[in-house]
Amino acid sequence: MAGRTVYDKIWDAHAVAERDDGLTILYIDRHLLHEVTSPQAFEGLALAGRHPWRRDANLATPDHNVPTTNRAAGIDGIDDPVARTQVVTLDENCKRFAIEQFEMTDVRQGIVHVIGPEQGATLPGMTIVCGDSHTSTHGAFAALAHGIGTSEVEHVLATQCLVQRKSRNMRIVADGDLGAGVGAKDLILAIIGAIGTAGATGHAVEYAGSAVRALSMEARMTLCNMSVEAGGRAGLVAVDDTTIDYVHGRPFAPVGALWDRAEEYWRGLKSDDDASFDREVHLDASQIVPQVTWGTSPELVLGIDETVPAPEAFDDPAKRELCERALDYMDLVPGTAMTDVAVDRVFIGSCTNGRIEDFRAAAAVLDGRKVADSVTQALAVPGSGLVKQQAEAEGLDAIFKAAGFEWRDPGCSMCLAMNEDRLYPRERSAATSNRNFEGRQGYLGRTHLVSPAMAAAAAVAGHFADVREF
Amino acid sequence: MDPFVSHTGVVVPLDRANVDTDQIIPKQFLKSIRRTGFGDNLFDAWRYLDEGDIGMNANERRINHDFVLNAPRFADGSILLARDNFGCGSSREHAVWALAEYGFRCVIAPSFADIFFTNALKNGLLLVVLAESQIDAVFSAVATTVGFSLTVDLRAQRIDGDAFHATFDIEPERKRLLLEGMDDIGLTMRHADAIRAFETAHRERQPWVFREGG
Ligand code: SF4
Fold first, then answer.
1. Phi, psi of B136 (to 5 degrees)
2. Is A64's C-beta closer than 6 angstroms to any atom of ligand 1?
3. Tell me: the pLDDT tens digits for A81-129?
4. Using 50, 70 and 90 to split pLDDT, how confident is the model at B171?
5. What is the overall mean pLDDT for chain A?
6. What's the 3-state SS for chain A?
7. Residues A355-390: pLDDT tens digits?
8. Which has the minimum average pLDDT: A12-21, A58-67, A125-134, B174-183?
9. pTM: predicted TM-score of the whole model, two decimal places
10. C-beta of A434 in contact with ligand 1 (< 6 A)
């Protein structure tokens, strides 16, 4: 038998049946739910008189809509009546269908893609889905994880399965050591810059190479998180000691003899030496400098030492047009050094960079420094209540506050600005989130994606700055 | 789901690549717990000159007359013509609901993002992939002919219009789903015995995946 990739192995272990048409019924181990993409699915389920197939596969939490201040007030703290209804609806649906939920005031509440791994609800080898495209995050654990739409949420609730066509295999190999001040966020932005936002469409992407092996679990989550920005539905990293050590002792993880059995199985979750990939991309990690996006698509990204490109720099007419449109929307002039671009607001958080290591990295830059006066607001939003608690136990909150950051309660916050945390028209942000689309962080807002350390550096300097010089 | 068999309609040209779901339906409209009510807010930030919010009356808003959807000649358009990687970004099915409720039955582009593709199928919105050169030909036809329309025949997998003819590929199962407007969940439920049998064996092999008796 030909060698198999990690993706092939997980796929094979979950294929229930192949239909006559060649599509596969794939069993789903874990289903994460949040308030925005689930209400219509629950409604559909109820209308058809159906029930969740397996209650214990599901875990829910509100994250997109929740305010990041005054959490103790719970649902009453949500001023927007429409948003409140959505969170209340999740509560009601979870009660009605007996699905476990970390409610707003639960310390375990947080962004779905932060709490899954944190709780050990994300385990190696699992198939994991959620009505959210950044479900790819969980692939860091060698789980097959991807986002689904609301109809599929309903489908998984009702049948515990998805009907899927297998993706092709792609491997992105990053060898060499990332330099000081350069992290997983820079690596994934550089990858997206190299292959484009549709570069991995139709593929499950495995990240490999010495640079990836050297990353912590949290950094691997950052990497896999943005697979979807490269067009891939799923990203994966093979299991190694780093994976096993992270999972051990988590609340939902197995214990005792079951742990031993699980560990033995998990350790086999790596691609065979003779496995073949439909596409391979190689990168020298040592050449990557801190990245910052300049346009309205994550592929429009530069090294911090570079200047804003001119449309003529692109050969492809479509790219040229994209560049022109982006320059106009972002109000940038070709030739401008990125270090001369001033920022109005800084956002550190999201499922990409809302974990403890992200706050440590930012705090290391902020320690003993102040946010520039020209910066209107700097927000630090932990990805979960437990991340917040841990950061406070380490005294990081004090560093953020002393520097002039607002230290908030967990949620998606300014990543997509469904709550009050947002950019106002024509404001510019340095953000650690994952999308710089037009209006993403607020109507007519201008988003630049960076790492947590780079966001902290921008907050202090008042403009983008090379964190390696801090 | 409404079946899709054949449709004839005016083509609306949206000459941009990487149109993401944040553009198709901005986040503020995602607070709704309903499946309907998104049509007026399709491409909200491009379609209007003021900032939209949930519950606003579309008739009282400032229209962006430069945006293609607002051009009188495209007012009845029901086939959207777009560029590469249409529907990239978030998994929000609201994007498909908005397109469908506005009146689009079909989107034609050189490529689509994965999740959007699946979402469209579940809602009877036909996505047709054509080669770049064919897309270019339709863009020029739309530019030169007012009211340029196409007939999309799913059964024959053909697109025909004035001096434009093309065939397209579609997976047989997707085609069947669309033609019959079938309930996907009902279809999978026919395999309930196989799912149950798999689950029992899976529980033997990987018991740590299960947290309770079921
Ligand atoms: S943090 Fe942003 S990208 Fe992540 S789940 Fe929330 S809204 Fe989506």
1. -55, -40
2. yes
3. 999 999 999 999 999 999 999 999 999 999 999 999 999 999 999 999 9
4. confident
5. 96
6. CCECCHHHHHHHHHEEEECCCCCEEEECCEEEECCCCCHHHHHHHHHCCCCCCCHHHEEECCCCCCCCCCHHHHHHHCCCHHHHHHHHHHHHHHHHCCCEECCCCCCCCECHHHHHHHHCCCCCCCEEEECCHHHHHHHHHCCEEEECCHHHHHHHHHHCEEEECCCEEEEEEEECCCCCCCCHHHHHHHHHHHHCCCCCCCEEEEEECHHHHCCCHHHHHHHHHHHHHHCCCEEECCCCHHHHHHHCCCCCCCCHHHHHHHHHHHCCCCCCCCECCCEEEEEEHHHCCCEEECCCCCCCEEECCCECCCHHHCCCHHHHHHHHHHHHHHCCCCCCEHHHCECCEEEECHHHHCCHHHHHHHHHHHCCCCCCCCCCEEEECCCEHHHHHHHHHCCHHHHHHHHCCEECCCCCHHHCCCCCCCCCCCCEEEECCCCCCCCCCCCCCEEEECCHHHHHHHHHHCECCCHHHC
7. 999 999 999 999 999 999 999 999 999 999 999 999
8. B174-183
9. 0.94
10. yes
* Buried-exposed string B62-79: b where 16+ CB fall within 10 A, e elsewhere: eebeebbbeeeebeebbb
- Percentage above 90 pLDDT, chain A: 96
Tell me the pLDDT band of B214, cut-offs 50, 70 and 90: very low
CB < 8 Å from B in window 206-265 of A = 231, 233, 252-254, 258-259, 261-262, 265
Q: Is the CB of A132 under 6 A from ligand 1?
A: yes
CA A412 / ligand 1 centre spacing (Å) = 5
The two three-digit tokens of residue A193, written as one number: 């810059």
CA of B150 to the centre of ligand 1 (A): 39
- Whether the pLDDT of residue B213 is over 50: the answer is no
* 3 state DSSP class of B115: helix
Tell me, what's the pLDDT at B1?
Answer: 72
How far is Cα B73 from Cα A235, in angstroms, rounded to an integer? 44
pLDDT, mean of residues A189-198: 96
Give the per-residue pLDDT at B174: 85
List chain B residues with CB under 8 Å of A325.
Answer: 16
Task: Return residues 107-146 of B near A (CB < 8 Å).
Answer: 111, 113-115, 118-119, 122-123
The torsion region of residue A298 among left (phi > 0), alpha (psi -120 to 50) and beta comes to alpha
Q: How does pLDDT run across A408-436, given as a tens digit for each residue? A: 999 999 999 988 999 999 999 999 999 99
